[in-house]
Fold:
Amino acid sequence: MTHLTIAPLLLPLFAGIVLLLTRHLLGIGFRRAFSIAAVLGQIGLATMLLQAVDGGDILTYALGNWPAPYGIVLVADRLAAWMLLITALLALFPLLHACRGEDVGGRHFHVLFQLQLFGLNGAFLTGDLFNLFVFFEVLLLASYGLILHGGGRARTKAGLHYVALNLAGSSLFLIAVGTLYGLFGTLNMADLAVKMAAVPAENLGPARAAGLLLFAVFALKAALLPLYLWLPAAYAHTSAPVAALFAIMTKVGAYAILRVTTLIFGAQAGSMSGLIEPWLLPLALATLIVGLLGALAARALREQAAYLVVASVGSLLTAFALGSAGGIAAGLYYLPHSTFAAAALFLLAERITQARGVIGDRFEPAPAMVGAPLLGGLFFVTAILLAGLPPLSGFIGKFLLLRAALTHPAGPWVMSLVLLGGLLGLIALARAGSLLFFRTLPEAPGTATPTVTAPLAPALGLLLLTLALTVAAGPLHVIAGATAEQLLQPYHYIHAVLGGRP
Amino acid sequence: MEALLASLIGLLTACGVYLALRGRTFPVVLGLTLLSYAVNLFLFAMGRLTIGRPPVIGAGLGGGYADPVPQALVLTAIVIGFAMTAFVIMLALKARAEMGNDHVDGEYE
Structure:
C-alpha cells in the first residue's frame, strides 16, 4: 500500500487549511505563491500517480487499514490518475489568472479554490458510493462559495438557483445510495459490482430504480439534456477564473457516469448490465444539438461559452455511450481538449469584455478594441478548437469519435448529428467572431479608453496545452486506449479492491 | 411500523417538493429542509427497523443487532444537510438584501 494514492487529497486539504489559518498573518503575495505552489505540487503528484498505474496496476489505499468492503478505500486506476492530471493542469491557469487581482474581490478565494480541488480529487479517487456523495458535497460547497465570489445581483440570483438545484440533487443521490445499501448491504463500488451480478429477481425493480436515480443525479452534475438549465446562467455570470475552473465540474458527472456504467452496470452485471446505455446515447446526442442551438441563439459571449460547455458534455457522453473501447478512448482524449478549450474561452471572454468597455460581451456593435488583432487571433484559435476543425485537437477528438461510431448500430445517427453539431458550432462561433471583431463603430469622441486588467498569458497557456494535446495525440491516444481497455475489464478493479475474493 | 414510517417519509417528501417549487425563497428553503428530513429517515430505515437491539455484535445480547452503517451514514448526511441549510439561508438573506425582494427570480411578474 503506497501513500501516493492519498497524497492528491491531503495536499489541497492542508493547503486550504493553512491558507485559512494564515489569512491575517501573511500577505496576499505569499498566499498567492503558496496556492500556486500547491497546484504545482498536485500536477507533480498526478504525474507520479499516472506513471505508477501505467503498467496496468490498480493502487488501492484502505483508510485506517480497514480492509474493503468494510472500510473506506481509495482506488487509483488509469482513469482516476488521468482525471487527476487534467484537473491539476486545468486549475493552474485560472489560478494564475485570478492572481492578477480578482482573488481579492471577495474573501477566501484561495481557500475555496484548494477545497474545490480537494473535492474534485476525492471524487475521482474514491471507491465507495457514499464517499462519492461526501466528496460531491465538498466540491459543491466550495463551488457555492466560488460562484458567488465577487458578488453582484446577477451572480447572487444565478447562485441561488444553482444551490437550490444541487441541494435537491443531493437528496436524490442519498435516496439512490440508501436504496442500494438496503438491497445489497454494501456501498463499496467493487463489492456492489459483484453483488449486482447476483441480484435476486424480486429485487430487480428497486435495483433498476436506484441505478437510474443515480444516473439522474450524475446527469444533473454533467448538465445532460433535461437537466442542463442551471448551467448557462451560473457559468455566464460568475467570474472568469471560476467559470474556467468549472469547465471540469461537468466532467465530474461524466466521470461518474462512465465509472458506474463500466464497473457496476458493466457487462458482468447479468440482468443489470446495460441499464444506463439506452438512455445515455439519445440524451447525449440531444444535449449536443441543444447546446449548440443555445450557442447559436446566445446574445453574449460568456453565455455562448456556457452553452458550448453543455455541447461538449453532449459530445463527451456520446463517446462514452458507444460503450466500445474505441468510443471510451475517444471520449477520454476529447475530455481534456474540451475542458482546456472551454476554460481558455472563458478567460479570453473576460479580456474581450473589458476591452469593449460598456458594451461588455454582448453581441452588439462597439468601437474597435484595443489590441484587437491579438485578441482576435486567439479567439480564432479557440474557435477552431471548439468547433473541431483541423488541424487542432478538437478535430482529432471528433475524428476518433466518428471512427468509433462506425461499428455501432446507431452509427449513422451519431455521425450525422455530430457532423451537424460541428456545422452549428462553426456558424455560432463565426457569428460571434464577426460581431465582436469586424462590425465596429467609429469611436465616439471624448470616451475614455477602457481599462484592461485581465491577463492574456493564462488563456495562452491553456491554448498551448491543447497544442500539446494535438502534437502528442499519438501517445495520449495509446494511454486513453489502455484506460478504456482497463475500464471494460472491471474484474481487475474488483480484484484489486477486494483482494482474493473476486 | 413500516407502513407508518413509509407514509411519513412520503408525506415529508410531498410537502418538501411542493414547498421547494414555490416562488419565494423562504418556502424553498423550508421545502429543501423537509426533503432532507425525508431522506435522512429513508436512509435510517434502510438498515431495517429494529427495536431494542444495540448496533454492536456481542455475546449475551439475545441475538440480533441493529445495522450500524446506516446510522453512521445518516449522521454524516444530517451534518452535511445542516451545513447546507445554514448556507442556503444566508444566501437567501443575501439575495433578499441585494434584489430588494424575496422572489427566487429576483422580481415578481
Remarks:
- Helices of chain B lie at 2-20, 25-45, 68-99.
